[in-house]
């Protein structure tokens, strides 16, 4: 441990269980000396084990629907009370597609479900930042990070409307990040993570094949949830204070690999 976050305070959205990237991040932030409030939607709190994480890290849990401005205002106000001041870091680790859950193909969406998924997965990031911005809740040189995936740039057919949500999320990070940087000296970035076997990620059709393919493509293999937590800690620290408006690929090199020897070998074998 390096005490990278000693004295820093924040909010972590989206920890569900020990497989969650947000869960691993909370553990690592705690180990690096940071304090935080944990939050998730009430239904997710009932499904997960967040209270165990709170006990382990000496944190408090505040239920909040990230699509509700009223809930977010309450969350930010109470977090500053609990933490004793303004906030240094925020992790947005939220995503959900009802179309994916219900097995609707991308070409046959239920648009009410699409809109709900967009609100949860992307618009909520704007709402979180707008609330922080209006309440002057962030300290100078603070860091806001959201988790995304490369389907925002390339076609992954079974990722469905979540690909659109991630593209929107990344755009919000850049657009709001400009104002947060210019007017509040706060940085905003997204981390584009390898496919990771979380509870949410595993709901995507063909996920196991997806995971294996990415692992064979990436020169370093897939980045784990713990690897992502470590990278997020670095983004929260003062070591990265001039990095903003970036979509940062954290995928073992997958995003810049056209084809790998392993994938080519498997393809050629399939032709024999």
UniProtKB/TrEMBL annotation:
Pathway: Lipid metabolism; fatty acid biosynthesis. One of its GO terms (molecular function) is enoyl-[acyl-carrier-protein] reductase (NADH) activity. The active site is at residues 149, 159. Coiled coil: none annotated. NAD(+) binds at residues 14, 20-21, 94, 166. Belongs to the short-chain dehydrogenases/reductases (SDR) family. FabI subfamily. This is Enoyl-[acyl-carrier-protein] reductase [NADH]. It comes from Oceanihabitans sediminis.
């Amino acid at each position: 441990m390096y005490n990278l976050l000693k004295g820093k305070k924040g909010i972590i959205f989206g920890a569900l269980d020990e497989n969650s990237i947000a869960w691993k991040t909370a553990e690592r932030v705690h180990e690096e000396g940071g304090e935080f409030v944990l939050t998730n939607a009430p239904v997710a709190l009932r499904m997960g084990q967040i209270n165990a994480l709170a006990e382990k890290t000496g944190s408090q849990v505040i239920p909040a629907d990230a699509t509700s401005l009223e809930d977010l205002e309450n969350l930010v106000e109470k977090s500053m009370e609990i933490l004793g001041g303004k906030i240094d870091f925020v992790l947005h680790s939220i995503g959900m597609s009802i179309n994916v859950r219900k097995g609707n193909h991308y070409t046959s969406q239920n648009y009410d479900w699409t809109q709900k998924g967009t609100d949860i997965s992307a618009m909520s990031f704007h709402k979180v930042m707008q609330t922080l911005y209006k309440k002057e809740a962030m300290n100078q040189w603070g860091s806001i990070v959201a988790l995304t995936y490369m389907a925002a740039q390339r076609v992954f057919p079974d990722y469905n409307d979540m690909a659109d949500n991630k593209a929107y999320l990344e755009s919000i990070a850049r657009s709001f990040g400009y104002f947060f940087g210019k007017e509040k000296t706060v940085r905003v970035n997204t981390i584009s993570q390898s496919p990771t076997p979380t509870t949410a990620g595993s709901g995507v059709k063909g996920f196991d094949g997806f995971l294996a393919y990415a692992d064979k493509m990436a020169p370093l293999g897939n980045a784990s949830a713990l690897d992502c937590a470590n990278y997020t800690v670095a983004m929260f620290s003062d070591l990265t204070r001039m990095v903003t408006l970036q979509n940062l690929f954290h995928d073992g090199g997958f995003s810049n690999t056209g084809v790998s020897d392993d994938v080519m070998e498997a393809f050629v074998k399939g032709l024999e």
